[in-house]
Structure prediction request, 158 residues.
Amino acid sequence: MANTSIEHFYSNDHDELDGFLKKFQELKRKNFVEAKPFFRAFKFGLARHILWEEEILFPVFEEKTGMKDNGPTVVMRHEHVLIKEALEALHDKVREHNPDSDAQERALIEILSEHNDKEESILYPAIDEMASDKQKKSLFLKMQEVPKERYETCGCHH
Prediction:
C-alpha cells in the first residue's frame, strides 16, 4: 500500500465494492444463500471505506485546504448519510431473504456513482498532490489499524 497513490487505492476499493454488489445481484434470484456473503462483503467493505474517509482521509484534506466547515468533504459526509440510508433499505431486503431489491439497489447505485465520481476526480487527486509520501504512508498505516469491530456490525444474525 505504501507506494500506492490515494487515488489508485481508493478507486480500486470502489471497484472491488462494485464487484461484490454485482455478484450479489447476479446470484440473489438463483441462490440467495450463495448471494448473501457478497452482500455482506459489500456492506462491511462500504462501511470500512466510509469510516476510512471520514476519520482518516477527510481530516487531511480539511487541514491542508482549510475547508473544514465548507467544501467537498461537507458534501461528501452528507452523501455518506444518504448512502448509509440506502444501504440499510437494501439490507432490510437481504435480512428478509427477499431478492426483489432492484429498486433499493438502483437508489444506492445512483448515490454511490455520483459520489464516487466526485471523490475520484476531486478529493483523491487533491490529497495525492498535497500530501507527502510520508503522510500517505501514515494514512495507509492508520487505515490498517482500524479494528474490524468498528465496521463489521449490522445488528442481524448471520
